[in-house]
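step: validate -> pass
step: tokenize input -> pass
step: predict -> running
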Amino acid sequence: MLAHFRQFDANSSSLSYAFPPPTVITGMIAGLFGIERDEYYKLFSKRFLELTVQVLTRPRKIMQTINYIYATQASHLNMSAQNVHTQIPVEFVVATQFPIQPVAYRVFLKFTDEEFGRELEKVITKNQIKYLPYFGSASFSSWLEWLGAPEEIEVVKSDNPLVVNSVVPIKAIAHDSLTLDLREEITPAYFREHMRREFAPGREPGEVIDLLWEKNQGKIKAIFTEPVYRLKLHGEDLNVIFY
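step: predict -> pass
step: emit ->
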């Protein structure tokens, strides 16, 4: 399975984020309900929906060159009328063990309207999906597994370092508190992603946020200035931070 989450500030080369940005996730949710493009920005703004992502498979990126043609009619698709193609480098996200292992993410959603969350569960579990989700482009199909609500939820605030399993807003990390000590053999590798959080109505550019993720273990250890949600999901203990 391939993914391509185009960086909004990329130039002619289509670079990709390592995980889906909030705008991709909200677009997927809108597609599940059949909400048309540009009609859901207010509905899924940060005021009504907070989210976060856990990177489940260690990702890597590969660069391929894609041929594009400008086609205004069907005959142009076979390169007739001297329709010259344009080659564009495109960055793809795959799992480290690609093609044996698919790239996978776990998405956590926190709606202000709990009824909307129940409707989303119904759409997915009752196979009422209007548009199938994809990983950034229609050619990169994906599938969903609804995991349900956590069995336990606890909001944690601590002056001591905590280990978080999700992507984390950089502004939520206390100054000089990020640590490389996770008491395991593999040294953490941290990366920053510069993403758009949302669009305003009319597709006006919204807030841009900086997120931190860890590539080797999927864990971030630091002192956090924002609430950490401690969840128990199918017997697994997880700490996440929403944004």
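step: describe -> Residues 47 and 112 are 8 Å apart (CA to CA).
step: cleanup -> pass
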